[in-house]
Design a protein that fits this description.
Helix content is 0%, strand content 51%. It contains no helices and eleven strands.
Length: 118
């Protein structure tokens, strides 16, 4: 079982920035694709960004150019730097870890709230 602990959410004004962190308990962190998802009230959970074990990166079209995902394998932590935040970015953000060979090993964090409002 892998524990994922997110931090860094909060309230920010439009145009502001936040940095989310996801700390993982597994020593095999480097073997996992790390993803950030979000879910707004009344909407489905959607992929925001992901970074594979070989550091290939994908972003949702809505965040390209504003968000940056990264990982530090030594620290077993994934990050999501969010800039130029918009009210539509408000959601609960979830960290996900999925083993790159055995996707049955798929874990979620508890979520962190991001609210963009003036």
């Amino acid at each position: 079982q892998v524990q994922l602990v997110e931090s860094g959410g909060g309230l920010v004004q439009p145009g502001g920035s936040l940095r989310l962190s996801c700390a993982a308990s597994t020593i095999a962190f480097s073997l996992y694709t790390m993803g950030w998802y979000r879910q707004a009230p009344g909407k489905q959970r959607e992929l925001v960004a992901q970074i594979t074990s070989s550091s290939n990166i994908d972003y949702a079209d809505s965040v390209k150019g504003r968000f940056t995902i990264s990982r530090d394998n030594a620290a077993r932590t994934a990050y999501l730097q969010m800039n130029s935040l918009k009210p539509d970015d408000s959601a609960v953000y979830y960290c996900n870890a999925r083993h790159h060979i055995m996707p049955i090993y798929n874990y979620w964090g508890q979520g962190t709230q991001v609210t963009v409002s003036s």
